[in-house]
Amino acid sequence: MTDGYMVKQYNRPVKRYCQTLDLRDNPELIAEYRKRHGHDHVWREILDGIREVGILEMEIYILGTRLVMIVETPLDFDWDSAMARLNTLPRQSEWEEYMSIFQKAEPGMSSSEKWRMMERMFYLYD
Question: 2, 12, 76, 96: which sits with the fewest CB atoms below 10 Å from its CB?
Fold first, then answer.
């Protein structure tokens, strides 16, 4: 997509987290993973839980088997406590177990164990 993607504007400063995870190198599994992340297929409890822990926006990008997730949160957001809380919410562990079929991850791993935090090494801001 060379037209870019719209970014939501907030009435306050936010911070961003970027993570990465690889999918299993299987075209059928990748197609199903894409489908399961479509708006009509993501479990409502998962979306509600993401919002409940304070995440404002979450995007996942894909290139081949590589995923990159961008998460935007309020400045006072604490990643570790939010992820610990997320792991206790309805259907979260079930969702993670199901997603492990598609991901290069061990069954039983939480989202925060599977997704690896990326380090920002460059920015253009003044």
Answer: 2
* The two structure tokens encoding residue 104: 């290069």
Q: Is residue 103 a contact partner of residue 22, using CB atoms and an 8 Å limit?
A: yes
pTM of the model: 0.91
Per-residue pLDDT averaged across 19-36, rounded?
A: 98
DSSP per-residue codes, the chain: --S-------SS-EEEEEEEEEBPS-HHHHHHHHHHTSTTTS-HHHHHHHHHTT--EEEEEEETTEEEEEEEEETT--HHHHHHHHTTSTTHHHHHHHHTTTBSS-TT--HHHHSEEPPP------
